[in-house]
Specification:
Layout: H1 3-14, H2 19-31, H3 33-38, H4 40-45, H5 48-52, E1 57-66, E2 72-83, E3 89-95, H6 101-117, E4 123-129, H7 138-152, E5 161-164, H8 171-185, H9 205-223, E6 232-235, H10 240-251, E7 255-256, E8 258-260, E9 264-268, H11 274-283, H12 289-294, E10 298-302, E11 313-315, H13 325-333, E12 338-340, H14 349-357, E13 361-363, H15 365-368, H16 371-385, H17 391-415, H18 422-440
Helix pairs in contact: 1-2, 2-6, 6-18, 7-8, 9-10, 9-16, 9-17, 13-14, 16-17, 17-18
Bound molecules: NADPH dihydro-nicotinamide-adenine-dinucleotide phosphate.
Length: 444
């Protein structure tokens, strides 16, 4: 049995109740076969794959808080510190009722390679809670965040582990958590990223994941003799990533025509009105039905359906496994030429395979959405320097990081004779650097 198959079997036995984690490990290890086969003896002796698929440590804790009726509520908190071979753990905090240990582990595992790809010194971690901020008052959200941080603050620090936002954790939640960290630890340090500009945040962090997605997509199209300008784009999601992906796509001369939330989706034949979308999602925190009510050119549909719209480029920016095989078939039938993942693992393994086999350019999330964490690392640098850089300076660093990421994965794919397979290229490029650091640091 090959080393990869041996480790996959062990990981399946040890983590049988964590399907998302198994899916991520399977996708990564399968695409790393060319590198692992070439170094099998050394990697087996050093147990490289067993070590990289086992978190350094993981924390699960009770989060008690009091709701507006005086009732005590209890949620579960998580932090998985996966691998710090190349820098302090770095990865977001997801607040969503679906959160469980397997989901946090899959996200933390992916984060190792994503962070490595940015070429910045950050390791992989992830955290969150099954708390749902939706429908809660500001006071309830603050009560939850303070209780969550009261426990989490024992395990994190500016040089240890630096969490950030993710689904359900935006500027409001980061602010409450930062306040509580500072109160308990009595230190003012860059322990969280995605902070407000008045207390150590970085310009462009809000826009970074969506903008970065478009910088990478543009470069991928350019290197395949195609131009982003004039393309029709289908986007899913209506959150942080989706909004700024839509905005940057428009600035590049493309036309995004869809967006979605957890209850339905919009098709706007005139192109999405970003100002209206921001008002509904960022200010009112309302449903997309309000968008359709305000725009005569827009149709609202209940449920799923964004990928049935004819488009040149698809950008899944909502959540994991939202683009399945049927969706992939529809995209191919409609002439889609490229898919770039704004969300983490939004495309199922079967869908990814189908898209790649049918000649669709496919940029995986760990490369395509790395702009968020890259800018978070730039926020860490500014905090360490006690300086703030201008919007233009951060944005131009972000653009060159994303262009670099694309060339790193393109080169890695070519080196291992899988040219054009950007999934393999991203995993190989991210893995090589982490493994080199792990081996240099001995058995730890
Ligand atoms: P937000 O919470 O801002 O937005 C998420 C969007 O996806 C919302 O429109 C939400 O709908 C929708 N959504 C969430 N869950 C589901 C679901 N189960 N089914 C359908 N729609 C759903 O999150 P972000 O935009 O920050 O994150 C989106 C994705 O991008 C996630 O996978 C995240 O891990 C990834 N990511 C985010 C980064 C960042 O910097 N923010 C960085 C890298 C990756 P509704 O409005 O109804 O809640």
């Amino acid at each position: 049995m090959s080393y990869v198959d041996e480790v996959l079997a062990k990981v399946k036995t040890k983590n049988a109740s964590e399907p998302e984690f198994l899916q991520a490990v399977e996708e990564v290890l399968n695409s790393l076969r060319p590198v692992i086969d070439a170094n099998e003896e050394l990697y087996r002796k050093e147990a490289v794959l067993e070590r990289i698929t086992e978190p350094d440590r993981q924390f699960m804790f009770r989060v008690p808080w009091v709701d507006d009726k005086g009732q005590v509520q209890v949620n579960r908190g998580f932090r998985v510190q996966f691998n710090n071979s190349i820098g302090p753990y770095k990865g977001g905090l997801r607040l969503h009722p679906s959160v469980n240990l397997g989901i946090i582990k899959f996200l933390g595992f992916e984060q190792i390679f994503k962070n490595s790809l940015t070429s910045l010194p950050i390791g992989g971690g992830k955290g969150g809670s099954d708390f749902d901020p939706k429908g809660k008052s500001d006071r309830e959200v603050m009560a939850f965040c303070q209780s969550f941080m009261t426990e989490l603050c024992k395990y994190i620090g500016a040089d240890t582990d630096v969490p950030a936002g993710d689904i359900g954790t935006g500027a409001r939640e980061i602010g409450y958590m930062f306040g509580q960290y500072k109160k308990i630890r009595s230190v003012y340090e860059g322990v969280l990223t995605g902070k407000g500009l008045s207390y150590g945040g970085s310009l462009v962090r809000t826009e970074a994941t969506g903008y970065g997605l478009l910088y990478l997509t543009k470069e991928m199209l350019k290197c395949n003799a195609k131009d982003i300008a004039g393309k029709t784009i289908a986007v899913s999601g209506a959150g942080n990533v989706a909004i700024y992906a839509i905005q940057k796509a428009q600035q590049m001369g493309a036309k995004p025509v869809t967006c979605s939330d957890s209850t339905g989706w919009i098709y706007d034949s005139e192109g999405i009105d970003v100002a209206l979308l921001k008002e509904i999602k960022e200010v009112k925190r309302a449903r997309l039905t309000e968008y359709a009510a305000a725009r005569p050119s827009a149709e609202y549909h209940e449920g799923k359906g964004v990928w049935s719209v004819k488009c040149d480029v698809a950008l899944p920016c909502a959540t994991q496994n939202e683009l399945d095989l049927e969706d992939a078939k529809q995209l191919v039938a409609n002439g889609c030429i490229a898919v770039a993942e704004g969300a983490n693992m939004p495309t199922t393994l079967e869908a990814t395979k189908y898209l790649q086999e049918n000649g669709v350019l496919f940029a995986p999330g760990k490369a395509a959405n790395a702009g968020g964490v890259a800018t978070s690392a730039l926020e860490m640098s500014q905090n360490s320097e006690r300086l703030s850089w201008s919007f233009e300076e951060v944005d131009s660093k972000l653009e060159s990081i994303m262009v670099n990421i694309f060339h790193n994965l393109d080169d890695a794919a070519k080196r291992y004779n899988v040219a054009g397979d950007y999934v393999a290229g991203a995993n190989i490029a991210g893995f090589e650097k982490v493994v080199e650091a792990m081996l240099a640091q001995g058995v730890c």
